[in-house]
Amino acid sequence: MNIAVIMACHNRKEFTLKCLGILFKQFGINSIFNIDVFVLDDNSTDGTSEEIKRQFSKVNIIQGDGSLFWNRGMYVAWKSAVESKKEFDCYLWLNDDTFLFKNGLHLMLNAAEETQYKSIICGSICSPYVEKKMTYGGCSLIDKKTIPNLPNGENCLADIINGNCVLVPHSVYLIVGNLDWSFIHAIGDNDYGLRAKKLGIFSYSTGNFIGTCSDNSSLPKWCNPEFSIQERFKNLYSPLGNAEPFKFFKYQKRHFGIIKASKNFLSTHLRLLYPNFWL
């Protein structure tokens, strides 16, 4: 089993190196599976690339110009893996702040094997601080609400996938393709799972936690009344605001229809203008 590990990083050297160190100590590596790692370093200034080369000389490093962020960075890294001369059975998306348990990748592969490598496998991630608290993973859409798939020992169908740790078999890639370049930082992972679903490809979240990642969710700056309206507006239209209105409108229109997309577009700007009403 040959796996291409796809990563994007920017100025988080300690996280990136820790993530790679754990990855190369996975149970089954070089016996059950082989890995080739493709890291898109989006113009880090903290010496990330230099240190990766020093500690992990076999890692393939692709240099970005600082404008790619997560989604486009992952797109470029994935494209590099596909265009390499190696043939891969699976592609693993891995965030550099996600630290796999020693058998994490093995659990992912077991889940993929259960689906005959015809489905996307989204790893269930828990907090490193609160035992068994889920932070990222697959979610189901029930009555128009997003419900996290809490691990219960069985792999579970997922409508929405988070991109922290996702296994995409090559057979799935041939049908769905790469991430959508039009998204810059966020949304691309959610969009990918829903695009796959429309093409008859199912996604599953793992029935057990496969690693840890801190919950990075907090009140976005664009709807935080502690900031000025100018700062809130700038953040909303920044890739790091995680809610770029026109990108999110495209995503929602594509998967949920123009009415829901329009309502969300309006409510987002109302929340920006009157943040105190939403607290």
Low-confidence stretches: none
- What is the makeup of the main sheet? 10 strands, mixed
- Give the topology string: H per helix, E per strand: EHEHEHEEHEEEEEEEHHEHHH
> Which CATH architecture of the largest domain?
Alpha-Beta Complex
Summarize the amount of helix as a percent range.
Answer: 25-40%
Could you name the CATH topology of the largest domain?
Spore Coat Polysaccharide Biosynthesis Protein SpsA, Chain A
Q: What is the CATH first-level class name of the largest domain?
A: Alpha Beta
- Report how far apart the termini are: 49 Å
List the helices and strands and how they pair.
Blueprint: E1 2-9, H1 13-23, E2 34-41, H2 48-55, E3 60-63, H3 69-83, E4 90-94, E5 99-100, H4 104-114, E6 120-126, E7 134-136, E8 138-142, E9 145-148, E10 156-158, E11 160-161, E12 165-169, H5 170-176, H6 188-198, E13 203-212, H7 229-236, H8 245-256, H9 258-273
Parallel strand pairs: 1-2, 1-4, 2-3, 6-13
Antiparallel strand pairs: 4-12, 5-13, 6-7, 6-12, 8-9, 8-11, 10-13
Label this structure with key terms.
10-stranded mixed β-sheet; alpha/beta; globular; 279 residues
What's the gist of this structure?
By secondary structure, the chain is α/β, with parallel strands linked by helices. It has helices spanning 13-23, 48-55, 69-83, 104-114, 170-176, 188-198, 229-236, 245-256, 258-273, and strands at 2-9, 34-41, 60-63, 90-94, 99-100, 120-126, 134-136, 138-142, 145-148, 156-158, 160-161, 165-169, 203-212. Helix 8 (245-256) runs antiparallel to helix 9.
